[in-house]
Specification:
It is built from 9 helices and 5 strands; from the N terminus they run ααβββββααααααα. It is an alpha+beta fold and 201 residues long. Strands 1-2-3-4-5 form a 5-stranded antiparallel β-sheet. Strand 1 and strand 2 form a beta hairpin.
């Protein structure tokens, strides 16, 4: 899979969500956010701090608020997509562009509140992660494939952990090896494992 390096490339890949993205892009630009591709998706930042992101799935598009758990969410729009893992991130889903248009004022309100929270230093800090223990099956391949090892090292800590957990959770040796075979091209493309599987749902 080709790595996405720009907003334009993202829209080309997901043309069916172009209108939804453009609506959100217009909103974020008006309140002074900066757009860039990070982790393969559009991310909107303020003073180099991530505020929100845009992602597409099979049946909906979504706005991710990086410190969404700190928002008042008085309109009850936000959900935690991973209750057992996510502390700060919150997601707002839209099935159609019209839903974005209808909720434009609320989106602006939530984004503005996010910016104000950042200015006040309100953030949910990540807990110290446990040491990564790479499965021996994957280490064996790293020893033979320097390119794969280097690509893995370039991934974020969270991405590395997702790949490691994906392999470690397999109980049978055969399943571990099959999973490793599946993720090799994904690691080489520096993809996010969770993001790839989430879009297939």
């Amino acid at each position: 899979m080709v790595k996405i390096n720009s907003i334009e490339e993202y829209i080309i890949k997901y043309p069916e969500w172009e209108k939804s993205f453009n609506l959100l892009y217009e909103i974020t630009m008006k309140i002074g956010l900066t757009a860039a591709i990070k982790w393969g998706v559009p991310v909107f930042s303020y003073n180099n701090k991530n505020v929100a992101g845009f992602a597409v799935f099979k049946n909906y598009s979504a706005i991710w608020f990086y410190q969404g758990a700190l928002l008042n969410d008085k309109f009850k729009k936000l959900i935690n997509a991973q209750e057992d893992k996510t502390k700060a991130l919150r997601q707002w889903r839209f099935k159609t562009p019209d839903e974005i248009i209808e909720n434009k004022k609320i989106i602006v309100e939530y984004l503005t509140e996010s910016i104000n929270n950042l200015n006040q230093g309100k953030v949910i800090k990540k807990e110290k992660s446990k040491e990564l223990v790479i499965p021996e099956e994957l280490n064996n391949i790293f020893r033979k494939n320097k390119k794969l090892y280097n690509a893995f090292q370039d991934l974020s800590l969270s991405c590395k952990r997702e790949y490691i957990d994906y392999i470690a959770e397999a109980k049978k040796q055969e399943t571990k090896l099959k999973r490793i075979e599946k993720i090799i091209p994904m690691i080489l493309n520096k993809e996010d494992l969770y993001r790839k599987y989430k879009t297939k749902k």
